[in-house]
Design a protein that fits this description.
Helix content: 10-25%
Distance between the termini: 9 Å
Strand order of the largest sheet: 8-10-3-4-5-1-11
Shape: globular
Number of domains: 1
């Protein structure tokens, strides 16, 4: 498999559900001037395995109902590598919290990602628990990962590949 920035491919697992590779980097100051400290990402990855916290979900544009769950995480140098698994198909709302509902189903969202490769980036949500004067965030609580259209991620050095 060739991995290039912000494109998508689908590979179903043995259970018929699809998996997505998400790569984010803490080695680049994002558009908000923040850097997640590598030690915090390693602590998150180490704490996630061998079990996953129920609230570490995969969202579409940081909003609405989950479309998947993070099932694996590890750090490689300054990159956080995550694998998300598609949730079984059900009706969901991917609209903004408190905004207009956008009703669809999980399969349709994953199909859209699969059928429109090359336009997806990755992002994640975290709660800041500590921050230095130069914008390095540590400690933090990472609680979700998201698929966003390329160009909308805070950190340009991200990748989402649906396997």
């Amino acid at each position: 498999m060739e991995v290039s920035n912000n494109k998508a491919m689908i590979l179903p697992g043995g259970d018929g559900l699809r998996y997505m590779l998400l790569v984010t980097s803490n080695a680049y100051r994002d558009r908000e001037g923040e850097i997640l400290k590598e030690q915090g990402l390693k602590e998150y990855a180490d704490g996630l395995m061998p079990t996953k916290p129920e609230d570490n979900v995969l969202l579409f544009w940081h909003e609405g109902d989950p479309i998947g769950d993070i099932v694996y995480a590890e750090c490689y140098k300054s990159f956080l590598i995550e694998i998300a698994q598609e949730r079984p198909n059900s009706n969901i709302n991917i609209g903004e919290k408190g905004g207009e509902e956008i009703n669809t189903d999980i399969k349709t969202v994953w199909d859209n990602i699969e059928n429109n490769p090359g336009i997806w980036g990755a992002s994640h949500g975290f709660r800041v628990l500590g921050k230095t004067k130069d914008g390095v965030i540590y400690p933090f609580d990472k609680f979700e990962s998201s698929i966003v259209a390329d160009g909308y991620q805070a950190n340009w050095f991200t990748l989402s590949e649906v396997l």
